[in-house]
Design a protein that fits this description.
By secondary structure, the chain is α/β, with parallel strands linked by helices. It is about 40% helix and about 25% strand. The protein binds S-adenosylmethionine. S-adenosylmethionine binds next to strand 4, strand 5 and helix 6.
Length: about 180
């Protein structure tokens, strides 16, 4: 079972930081891959550096034909969830998505600017994290946390050079030196 996140759009300078945060949130909360529709070397570098130091096998891809990507994903045992404030409330629809998700892959779409109507139409589920406008990072985090029921917060990443030992009262970090 695989979870991928498709970031639709990216407005250069303005979105560098938030697009990086979308990718890091995806990785930290259980997704296997982030797909961008706009190239940005700075974002790619930042994400790759995190993976190099903090481990795991998180993939980064840039595509041009996002509609084809979605259609192809659906044809290959995948369901597609588009996060939008106009969608069905996550509280009401999550059980159904989880049932559908069993044995399948899931593609989660988040936008940057106005999302084209085809994204709404191609999605199997248009899901809102409440019906107020907020942020793609917040929406993605809540959705993934609900999907994995908090379990991915304990996830250990393979080949990590840096690991944190969780502590209430001190900062404990293990750093593996390069040989
Ligand atoms: C800052 S919003 C911009 C949305 C844009 N104004 C539009 O009309 O599509 C960027 C993204 O955050 C996500 N988002 C924001 N609020 C949300 C909510 N309440 N529920 C689900 N996703 C949300 C959506 O994926 C959206 O495309």
């Amino acid at each position: 079972m695989r979870v991928e996140v498709l970031r639709l759009g990216h407005r250069g300078e303005r979105d560098k930081r938030i697009s990086t945060h979308v990718a890091l949130t995806a990785r930290a909360l259980g997704a296997d891959k982030i797909i961008f529709t706009v190239e940005d070397e700075h974002v790619e570098e930042s994400v790759k550096k995190i993976v190099e130091n903090w481990g795991g096998n998180f993939k980064f891809e840039v595509i041009k034909k996002w509609k084809e990507y979605i259609k192809n994903f659906k044809e290959n045992n995948g369901i597609v969830v588009h996060l939008t404030m106009y969608g069905a409330n996550v509280n009401e629809i999550m059980d159904e998505i989880k049932k559908e998700f069993e044995g399948k892959n899931i593609l989660v779409i988040v936008g940057a600017e106005k999302v084209p109507k085809e994204a709404y139409e191609l999605a199997d589920y248009n899901v809102s994290i409440g019906n107020q406008p907020h942020s793609e990072v917040a929406a993605l985090a809540i959705f993934l946390d609900r999907l994995f029921e908090g379990k991915t917060l304990y996830r250990k990443f393979e080949n990590a050079k840096i690991r944190i030992i969780p502590s209430n009262d001190k900062k404990q970090v293990i750093i593996k030196k390069d040989k």
